[in-house]
Amino acid sequence: MSRIGKQPVAIPSGVKVQVTGGKVLVEGPKGKLEFAPHPALKVELDDKAKAVRVSRPDDERQNRALHGLTRSLINNMVEGVVKGYEKKLKIEGIGYQARMDKKTVVLTVGYANAVKMTPPDGVTVELPDPTTIIIKGADKQKVGQFAAEVRKVRKPEPYKGKGIRYENEQVRRKEGKSFTSGG
Length: 183
Known about the structure:
The structure is a single chain. The protein is α+β, with helices and mostly antiparallel strands. 22% of the residues lie in helices and 36% in strands. It contains 3 helices and 13 strands, in the order αββββββαββββββαβ. It has helices at 3-6, 61-82, 140-153, and strands at 9-10, 16-20, 23-28, 31-35, 42-46, 51-55, 85-92, 97-101, 104-108, 115-117, 123-129, 132-137, 163-166.
């Protein structure tokens, strides 16, 4: 039995959860999220215990795998509408910077043209300074995906460390070529 799948998802106060027509709707102070679990799994709302339970029909490999996944996704939705998720990115390199143009993020990272990126709905971008990007939202998947797309524009390179990296990311540095008098 999935250890994570067995645990009920506690619903904090101020969060409304509905399970209707094969969909789970979670609404809270940070927004609304919707998720359609696999039809084989049963998602039940326990109003007395203020919890959501996920159960599976049998111990087939696919159902075992989906059991814990579904519970984790519902838990992430509940956590997202209460606290929200955020990713911080740092830009390193001389002249490399980001700026906002209405809702679009404009990245100047060493290419001939500036790269413009528009965040998806439900995701907000803040720039406390030109070299820091903070991506926030209620949907963990959308926040992580947009952060990955921004990082992909200019990945950190291993020689000088220039590029866009996550805040606590360690970039493996390499030694450059050393010219010695070889004969």
